[in-house]
Amino acid sequence: MSLMDALPTPRLRWEGRRPNGVLLSLSVVMLAAFWSLDAVSVAPNRIVAGTGYGALEAFGWPGVLLATLLLSAIGLFAWQPSTQHYRALLASLMALMALMPVGLIASSYLLIDPDLPQARLGLGAAYWVILFLLLLCLIEIRLRLKLSRLWPTLLLTAVALIWWLCAALWLDSLALVQEFRARDAQFVRAVGQHITLVSIAVSISVVVGMLLAMLMRRYSRLQKGAFALLNFLQTIPSLALFGLLLGPLAWLAAKVPFLAQLGVSGIGTAPALIALIAYSLLPMVRNTYIALEEVSPATLDAAKGMGMRSGQRFWQVRLPLALPVLLEGVRITTVQAIGLTAVAALIGAGGLGTFIFQGLGQAAMDMVLLGALPILMLALVVDAGLGALAEALRPGGIQ
Amino acid sequence: MIELAHVSKRFGNETAVDDMSLHVPKGKFCALVGTSGCGKSTTLRMINRLIEHSEGDIILDGQAIKEYDPVKLRRRIGYVIQHTGLFPHWSVVRNIGLVPRLLKWPAAEVQARVEELMNLLGLSVGEFGHKYPHQLSGGQAQRVGVARALAADPDILLMDEPFGALDPITREKLQDELARLQAKMHKTVVFVTHDMDEALKLADHLVVMRAGRIVQQGSPLALLQHPVDPFVESLLGGLERGLKQASLTRVKDHMTSMGQMLPAQSRIPADFSLRQALSMMLRDHCDRLTVVDQHDVPIGELSLRRIIKEAQLDKGSA
């Protein structure tokens, strides 16, 4: 044995603590966006396009300094990441998100002329870019700290509360707030309609999807045809499907008075629901089918060999073991339905899509946001909630 | 008691098991050995009707299994499989209590039985009872598998390569434990394996199968002494066969009373195997050993020349 073999391999002190490239580059991009893009825009009224202002004009020196410090902290902590550093990262992330509305309050004092009640403050590109990148950072940190999905959801809920509080108390000049104030009753109704449409469509497709998946397992010949049909439905553009349903449904409502009494007509809720269910069936059936089929054959063989009847095998073994994947299907289906329901506004089904299309029609981007942001948040909340539920239901805590 | 009479199984045009006849007396351990695809697992699974046989009769305790309700039949037969087949979403206690619960035992009785079995298999109830299968090692998981199979105290135990997926040390430990349990409980066991050493170690009755047919059956010693063809001989380990046979024989069966010569230096306990005795002779460069009892008192001697002579006599008598 030579002397070289006897010596321990030299190890770098920070081995295994290599800089986290993802967070580092995100920090650099955020700093660049903060310094170069417009932080806010100010418009004298609803119709005129606003003038953009950089961070310095919008927040003043103290604000810029604080934000730069926090953004650089992300990069610094990411340089030598350890568990403590990731926790510190999470803290600075939360601080940044919580400070964002405070920055808006500052710029409304600095930039808005109190004598112009029509003047409104809009979020600039820097705001959107940084908000989006901060969310990416949050995902990365969650994975590194191996946190369950529940944590970021709770933290983001806290942040959302701070945003809401600021908006309600001090941000009258924010364009989004003004849009909301102008139609708050309509907004609440639209949120209600949106959630109702999604819940009905998803509940029906969960029941129908499970029945279909179970039938497919029994009659394998059905499987090919059904998947082909559902795949085909999925490829039809949503607007076209609404159009296709218009004729037959109007005809049905005219011929069968009972259906008309139920509210079935060419436009409105009925075609929207039918289309939503049609789109929801594929992810639901596919996931249910896979979930039920994927259960280990050895486990099922043992269940049978132990003397469990087929019903006992299904309810006590196959279904509980399939549940996490099955819930994943419900999650995908629901998130997809939340997005699709926006389009349903076009055929008069109501929901948050109404604001999007009205806003587009009036070239009022703030009104579009009033529709789009809640849809986004709804999707995120459902995604996190059902994801956490599926995680909690994994058998015996298997990851 | 299990009786197979001219049993065949066809899958379409393929014959998986061909005209198989087998008798396993009550309380005996029968091992089915063969290369993969020889029909041994199929045979086993026909006994608890996971596979229905095409021809012939399978009789348990005097009644054809076709007359049983398959579910009730399976509940009175213990079943252990290679990858344990434990339910991953159930705790150890719940897994073991499965069949008693299916049989609607009162909850307290189920709990008592589960604890009894865990103690029997060396699993501490406090430590393992509430764990889930993925938190167990392979050996622990298969102990739970065996406990589950024994839960409702079945007379018959079917084991399908139960230790096939374990590392050699754990496997040997579990084999020893199964032998110990069997000596105590006297279940009627049908055990499928491709590991001949395992079969030789555990079985009272050995069945060698090839291409769905029985090639030879008999006691392990009988097979080692007189394999019917080169296939069986190669399964039994070819040239190693002599040593395997020696490992099935106790020193005391070849011992003679103390002779006129000086007692040999090397000592061996009487209940050791002949294989260990031969190894000791090689190690200590001698052809005689002094046999001692458990208190290390000499009770006789073992001579290599005599062992060889007796082996010749055995061969001659066949």
Automatic annotation (TrEMBL), chain A:
<keyword id="KW-1133">Transmembrane helix</keyword>
<keyword id="KW-0812">Transmembrane</keyword>
<feature type="transmembrane region" description="Helical">
    <location>
        <begin position="21"/>
        <end position="38"/>
    </location>
</feature>
<feature type="transmembrane region" description="Helical">
    <location>
        <begin position="258"/>
        <end position="282"/>
    </location>
</feature>
<comment type="similarity">
    <text>Belongs to the binding-protein-dependent transport system permease family.</text>
</comment>
<protein>
    <submittedName>
        <fullName>ABC transporter permease</fullName>
    </submittedName>
</protein>
<feature type="transmembrane region" description="Helical">
    <location>
        <begin position="88"/>
        <end position="112"/>
    </location>
</feature>
<keyword id="KW-0813">Transport</keyword>
<dbReference type="GO" id="GO:0005886">
    <property type="term" value="C:plasma membrane"/>
</dbReference>
<dbReference type="InterPro" id="IPR051204">
    <property type="entry name" value="ABC_transp_perm/SBD"/>
</dbReference>
<feature type="transmembrane region" description="Helical">
    <location>
        <begin position="124"/>
        <end position="143"/>
    </location>
</feature>
<feature type="transmembrane region" description="Helical">
    <location>
        <begin position="369"/>
        <end position="390"/>
    </location>
</feature>
<keyword id="KW-0472">Membrane</keyword>
<dbReference type="GO" id="GO:0055085">
    <property type="term" value="P:transmembrane transport"/>
</dbReference>
<dbReference type="InterPro" id="IPR035906">
    <property type="entry name" value="MetI-like_sf"/>
</dbReference>
<feature type="transmembrane region" description="Helical">
    <location>
        <begin position="150"/>
        <end position="171"/>
    </location>
</feature>
<feature type="transmembrane region" description="Helical">
    <location>
        <begin position="58"/>
        <end position="79"/>
    </location>
</feature>
<feature type="domain" description="ABC transmembrane type-1">
    <location>
        <begin position="191"/>
        <end position="386"/>
    </location>
</feature>
<dbReference type="InterPro" id="IPR000515">
    <property type="entry name" value="MetI-like"/>
</dbReference>
<feature type="transmembrane region" description="Helical">
    <location>
        <begin position="337"/>
        <end position="357"/>
    </location>
</feature>
<feature type="transmembrane region" description="Helical">
    <location>
        <begin position="191"/>
        <end position="215"/>
    </location>
</feature>
<dbReference type="GO" id="GO:0031460">
    <property type="term" value="P:glycine betaine transport"/>
</dbReference>
Automatic annotation (TrEMBL), chain B:
<dbReference type="InterPro" id="IPR046342">
    <property type="entry name" value="CBS_dom_sf"/>
</dbReference>
<keyword id="KW-1003">Cell membrane</keyword>
<keyword id="KW-0813">Transport</keyword>
<keyword id="KW-0997">Cell inner membrane</keyword>
<dbReference type="InterPro" id="IPR017871">
    <property type="entry name" value="ABC_transporter-like_CS"/>
</dbReference>
<keyword id="KW-0129">CBS domain</keyword>
<dbReference type="InterPro" id="IPR003593">
    <property type="entry name" value="AAA+_ATPase"/>
</dbReference>
<comment type="subunit">
    <text>The complex is probably composed of two ATP-binding proteins, two transmembrane proteins and a solute-binding protein.</text>
</comment>
<keyword id="KW-0472">Membrane</keyword>
<dbReference type="InterPro" id="IPR027417">
    <property type="entry name" value="P-loop_NTPase"/>
</dbReference>
<dbReference type="InterPro" id="IPR005892">
    <property type="entry name" value="Gly-betaine_transp_ATP-bd"/>
</dbReference>
<dbReference type="GO" id="GO:0015418">
    <property type="term" value="F:ABC-type quaternary ammonium compound transporting activity"/>
</dbReference>
<dbReference type="GO" id="GO:0005886">
    <property type="term" value="C:plasma membrane"/>
</dbReference>
<feature type="domain" description="ABC transporter">
    <location>
        <begin position="2"/>
        <end position="236"/>
    </location>
</feature>
<dbReference type="InterPro" id="IPR000644">
    <property type="entry name" value="CBS_dom"/>
</dbReference>
<comment type="similarity">
    <text>Belongs to the ABC transporter superfamily.</text>
</comment>
<dbReference type="GO" id="GO:0006865">
    <property type="term" value="P:amino acid transport"/>
</dbReference>
<keyword id="KW-0067">ATP-binding</keyword>
<dbReference type="GO" id="GO:0031460">
    <property type="term" value="P:glycine betaine transport"/>
</dbReference>
<protein>
    <recommendedName>
        <fullName>Quaternary amine transport ATP-binding protein</fullName>
        <ecNumber>7.6.2.9</ecNumber>
    </recommendedName>
</protein>
<dbReference type="GO" id="GO:0005524">
    <property type="term" value="F:ATP binding"/>
</dbReference>
<dbReference type="InterPro" id="IPR003439">
    <property type="entry name" value="ABC_transporter-like_ATP-bd"/>
</dbReference>
